[in-house]
Design brief:
15% strand, alpha/beta, Rossmann fold
């Protein structure tokens, strides 16, 4: 079977429930939905309000056709056929940093940025698509385009009393369960502290910068955005687990589409030759309620309609 439309196979709510329990979601900063982004919406030009995006999002079809044995090896990819109002679409750029401490991960990311992400972002900007930068809280909050700049945050919610704080920190009687100290931990901490948004992907004009999933959600809610294209790094970490990442935003009810050639993951000795971690993260999304596309497909879809 070639890629086909099988709308009844998606069962998105149940898949989202599965992912919400399986995801290692990032910590969510509690924000007052009445005060955050007060009066702030994404810019909408007349051209953008009438433009469309035609795209064929890919997913993994767990079903088989009548007469076909229902086994894993007979399941495969399928695609839908969507035409989406452009003012309901946003491109979310996750953790597109200017460096990475793993040299081979950094090299792959630079190649993705140079060859795929830069031309893709340029086309999306030219089309009038909403661009949202989500570079992680330490990089987002000092940025002049941070959507919550100048607003007072409510007091942080009290942490859960269970598991105990000593267990969470692996201190006191639980110290024996902590991971060993790494000799280059201080060096890594300094590298992370100096991270910046990649110079070729920096916000242009008033493109918003978010630090949390709640900020992204409020921004989308006020502006009518329902479809989120995701690009950035790392596929098997931040793309999945950030509270503004694919799993959490899918749990919130958005349609999530990963631009699969505009991302790469962190690999191990065993997975690096085949990029199994990257490809596995992509397949995880396709298997459980989300979709993927390529940058060329989106660029063609912006020109087509």
């Amino acid at each position: 079977m070639n890629d086909q439309t099988h709308a009844g196979d998606l069962d998105s709510p149940s898949r989202r429930r599965f992912l919400s329990t399986a995801a290692a979601a990032g910590a969510v900063l509690a924000l007052d939905s009445q005060s955050i982004l007060s009066g702030q919406t994404l810019e909408k030009s007349p051209a953008r309000s009438t433009s469309k995006l035609h795209v064929r999002p890919r997913y993994h079809r767990w079903h088989v056709d009548p007469g076909v044995e229902w086994i894993e090896t007979n399941t495969k990819h399928a695609s839908l056929d969507w035409t989406i109002p452009l003012n309901q679409v946003a491109l979310v750029l996750v953790d597109v940093w200017d460096r990475h401490y793993l040299k081979d991960t950094a090299a792959r990311a630079e190649a993705v940025i140079d060859e795929k992400l830069v031309p893709f972002l340029s086309t999306c900007r030219d089309s009038g698509m909403t661009i949202v930068h989500a570079p992680s809280p330490p990089q987002a909050t000092p940025h002049p385009n941070w959507v919550n700049a100048g607003k007072s945050l409510p007091a942080a919610a009290q942490p859960d009393v269970w598991p105990p704080s000593a267990f969470r920190s692996k201190s006191g009687q639980f110290q024996a369960y902590s991971r060993p100290s790494e000799p280059r931990a201080a060096e890594l901490a300094q590298l992370r502290a100096d991270l910046k948004i990649h110079p070729r992907i920096r916000p242009v004009g008033n493109e918003p910068v978010v630090a949390t999933g709640e900020e992204l959600h409020q921004l989308c809610q006020r502006s009518g955005v329902l479809f989120l294209l995701f690009a950035g790094f790392n596929t098997n970490a931040r793309i999945l687990a950030r509270d503004y990442g694919t799993l959490e935003m899918s749990r919130r009810g958005y349609e999530v589409i990963l631009v699969r050639d505009c991302t790469t993951g962190m690999e191990s000795r065993e997975t690096q030759p085949t990029l199994s971690q990257t490809n596995g993260a992509i397949l995880l999304l396709e298997m459980f309620g989300q979709y993927t596309v390529t940058s060329d497909e989106v660029r063609a879809g912006l020109r087509e309609v």
